[in-house]
Design the sequence.
C-alpha cells in the first residue's frame, strides 16, 4: 500500500509571516495539531504545532499577536512522497517521533499523512499501533 492510498488531501497551511495567534485559531478551527508553513509558491518552509505555540511563544511570554510563525516553527521537515510505501512512512514517523508527515510531490505540498489516516485503514491497524508505540517509546527515552 502506498502513501497516496491513505493521505489526507486539501491541507490547511499558514504563511511564515502570519501571526502565531492566527495559526492557533486555524489549528482550533480545523481541529488539527499541526500546520505546514508554506511560502506563496507552495514550498514547505517548516511546520508549526500546538506544542510549538505553547512552548516557544506562550511559555516565553511572547505576544502571539505580534510573533510571526517563522520564529517558532520547526524548520526540520521530514516528509514522504505519494509513491512511497506506507511501511516506509511509518518508519519515518517512528524515527523522527512525529505523528504527521507532509506529503511532497515535486517539492510542493500535496497532502498530509497522519497516524489517524493509518488507523482508519483496516489494512494498517497493526502497523499504526506499532508506529504509535515506537513513537511513544522514543519519546520516553528522551
Sequence:
Amino acid at each position: 500500500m502506498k502513501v497516496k492510498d491513505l493521505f489526507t488531501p486539501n491541507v490547511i497551511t499558514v504563511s511564515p509571516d502570519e501571526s502565531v495567534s492566527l495559526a492557533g485559531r486555524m489549528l482550533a478551527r480545523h481541529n488539527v495539531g499541526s500546520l505546514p508553513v508554506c511560502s506563496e509558491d507552495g514550498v514547505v518552509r517548516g511546520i508549526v504545532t500546538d506544542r510549538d505555540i505553547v512552548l516557544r511563544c506562550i511559555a516565553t511570554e511572547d505576544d502571539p499577536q505580534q510573533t510571526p510563525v517563522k520564529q517558532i516553527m520547526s524548520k526540520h521537515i521530514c516528509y514522504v512522497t505519494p509513491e512511497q510505501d506506507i511501511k516506509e512512512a511509518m518508519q519515518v514517523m517512528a524515527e523522527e517521533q512525529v505523528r504527521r508527515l507532509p506529503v511532497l510531490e515535486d517539492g510542493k505540498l500535496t497532502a498530509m499523512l497522519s497516524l489517524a489516516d493509518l488507523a482508519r485503514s483496516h489494512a494498517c491497524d497493526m502497523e499504526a499501533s506499532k508506529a504509535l508505540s515506537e513513537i511513544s517509546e522514543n519519546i520516553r527515552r528522551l
